[in-house]
Design a protein that fits this description.
By secondary structure, the chain is mainly beta. It is 6% helix and 72% strand. The protein has a 28-stranded antiparallel beta barrel.
Length: 633
């Protein structure tokens, strides 16, 4: 039934595609996040609520900005899953001097999840007051301080909290332009010290219209501490129910990008950089004894080097070429950083476990695109890429050392017979070769080949009728290199053919009829690649139909009635003969009510009374409902 739900959730998009010329045109603001909204969905046994309130007003020089987000999801099963997320922020500011503003902010976030493994309840509330100064038009400085309450599970911490920010844009240094942005925050809680910092600096220089050079430097630091259940030894020695897990992550990155345009028809890009990241992890309380086997502090050191070169060339108005070559190398080292007072047996065992995770990976990629306007009615597009990944593991016990080759090629031809009729032919091929370098894993070496061909026709003889018809044939073949030497791995195939029709017609000024239909046939089986023969195992036939009749009651109000039907016939093979296994059906009437107001205001109500059947017998009837409400305060 999950496949049923997914297939039917995609149908509204296909209906919208067919009805595009028949919709009224409404104005929309560019930033939809500044609009309040409310939505509810019920699909099968999953209930989802989403709420968003946005309020931004100025009251005689006092700016008030309020945002509230709420998400709740309930899955009704034998083990009921209940997940809730809530966050809000309130910012109030006013000017107290020529270049000074007084600012107060409150931020809260609450999370609960009864199915989470460790942290099932989190809550954070912060109250800060401070000032923001503009000593220069392009410079902003700010500082806030206040009180924070942070709760995790049954533990609640309180303490002083502060933030600082600095921003400078459009700085001039002779022929260079510079930008700086930095933030720092820390909370001095009862038992924890979470903090974060980031700094971004950019220096740019233009060389007329021919070129531009951009240097970027960034620093990020994030320290988080979480409560986790303490083991019995820690509870006995330290008298605490929860331990504290700490994660410190710091990274530095510097990059240089050069853009050069030697002619109006050619543009070159060169970019390179380096990134260094360090992650320290550990528990605050430990009992260092051989019998307790504590988790020691560890460090992950990651270094990345990357570079790329690209070119865009347009030799003629009807032809465009793009090519890009890139290389990225990443080295990851693991080690135990805690050794004082640690029994040697524990240290050596965990050090070996950490070193086993070390790896060195390098990927080389080459991609290209070609766009050709062959005539006034024909356009040809080509895209291709090839990449090689080399993944090395210094530790001999890590068997994941491998090489991967990925090649993809796609081509599309669009022919416009007239302004009313167009034809599109698309084909693509994907090849992936996975080779494990150590003999213990070599049985998993394989080739994966995916071949797809998809033609489509769009016909719109008038603004009152539009139809889109699309077909697709797909073959997915996975072949293991050493299949003949063992029975543990078997090559397999997946083949699919589908047909889709999406049409709409205006019957009158107030009535619009729409139809979406799809038939999909696919087969899975064991593949004998050398003989290119298949031993089929499963066969499926899926049908989806959704006719609708929309009544335009007013310019902003539309009512839609329809009937949605989905069926899946399952077959199996016995001695090479296909036999029917079972039939699954979902069907029922649908209703849609939509209202569009000014700006982004809208109300959309959708319902589907779904009746599920198996082999003709009714299993259950489920009322699916969806409500979406957007409004401005």
């Amino acid at each position: 039934m999950h496949r049923t739900a997914v297939a039917l959730l995609l149908l509204p998009a296909a209906v919208a595609l067919a009805q595009e010329p028949l919709r009224f045109s409404f104005s929309r603001p560019q930033d939809s996040l500044r609009v309040s909204s409310l939505s509810f969905d019920r699909v099968l046994n999953t209930y989802t609520w989403n709420g968003n309130i946005f309020f931004d007003r100025d009251f005689n020089g006092v700016e008030v900005l309020f945002r509230q987000l709420l998400r709740s999801r309930l899955i009704r099963t034998d083990q009921q899953s209940d997940q809730n997320e809530y966050s809000d922020s309130l910012i109030v500011g006013t000017q107290i001097a020529a270049d000074w503003r007084l600012r107060a902010q409150q931020v809260s976030s609450v999370l609960s999840d009864n199915m989470a493994v460790d942290l099932t309840r989190l809550g954070q509330h912060q109250f800060l007051v401070g000032v923001r100064a503009n000593p220069q038009p392009a410079i902003v400085l700010g500082a806030l301080a206040g009180y924070e309450i942070d709760a995790q599970q049954s533990e609640t911490d309180r303490g002083f909290s502060y933030q600082a920010t600095a921003q400078a844009e459009g700085l001039r240094f002779e022929e260079f332009r510079g930008t700086l942005r930095g933030d720092w925050s820390q909370s001095l809680l009862t038992r924890r010290r979470p903090e974060s910092a980031n700094l971004d600096v950019s220096v740019e220089r233009d060389f007329g219209e021919e070129g531009r050079n951009l240097i970027l430097f960034s620093f990020d630091h994030l320290r988080r501490e979480f409560y986790t259940a303490a083991d019995p030894d820690v509870q006995r020695v330290y008298g605490v129910a929860d331990n504290i897990f700490r994660r410190d992550a710091s990274s530095y990155e510097i990059s240089d990008a050069l853009e050069y345009r030697p002619t109006d028809r050619m543009q070159l890009l060169f970019r390179g950089g380096m990134l260094s990241r360090t992650i320290d992890r550990g528990l605050r309380y430990k009992v260092l004894s051989v019998s307790s086997n504590p988790l020691l502090d560890t460090r992950i050191q990651e270094t990345q080097l990357y570079g790329e070169a690209g070119a865009s060339y347009q030799p003629a108005y009807w032809l465009g070429l793009d090519v890009n070559l890139s290389y990225r190398e990443r080295e990851e080292r693991h080690q135990v950083t805690e050794s004082d007072g640690v029994p040697s047996a524990i240290f050596e065992r965990q050090q070996r476990s950490e070193q086993r995770l070390e790896n060195i990976a390098g990927r080389t990629s080459l991609s290209s695109q070609i766009r050709a306007l062959l005539s006034e009615s024909d356009q040809l597009n080509f895209a291709g890429s090839a990449s090689i990944l080399r993944y090395d593991t210094p530790d001999s016990t890590n068997l994941d050392e491998r090489d991967e080759l990925l090649v993809t090629v796609g081509v599309q031809e669009v022919h416009q017979f007239s302004s009313r009729l167009s034809l599109s032919l698309a084909a693509d091929v994907s090849l992936n070769h996975l080779v494990y370098l150590k003999s213990a894993q070599s049985a998993n070496n394989n080739w994966n080949r995916v071949i797809r061909f998809s033609p489509s026709v769009t016909y719109a003889p008038s603004g009152d009728f539009r139809t889109v018809n699309q077909a697709e044939v797909l073959g997915n073949y996975t072949v293991y290199d050493f299949e003949d030497q063992g029975a543990l791995t078997r090559s397999f195939s997946f083949r699919q053919a589908s047909w889709l029709d999406s049409s709409s017609v205006r019957l009158s000024q107030l009535l619009i009829a729409a139809f979406v239909g799809e038939v999909r046939v696919y087969e899975r089986g064991i593949l004998l690649w050398s003989a290119f023969k298949e031993r089929p195992q499963d066969y499926f036939v899926e049908r989806t139909y959704w006719p609708r009749l929309n009544y335009v009651a007013a310019r902003d109000l539309t009512l839609g009635l329809g009937f949605r039907y989905f069926s899946q016939d399952r077959y199996t093979y016995q001695s090479g003969v296909r036999s029917f296994l079972q039939e699954l059906e979902s069907s029922g009437p649908t209703v849609t009510l939509s209202w569009y107001g000014t700006g982004f205001q809208r109300v959309v109500l959708e319902g589907w009374n779904e009746t599920q059947r198996q082999n003709g017998q009714v299993i259950r009837t489920i009322p699916n409902l969806s409500l979406k409400l957007n409004y401005s305060l």
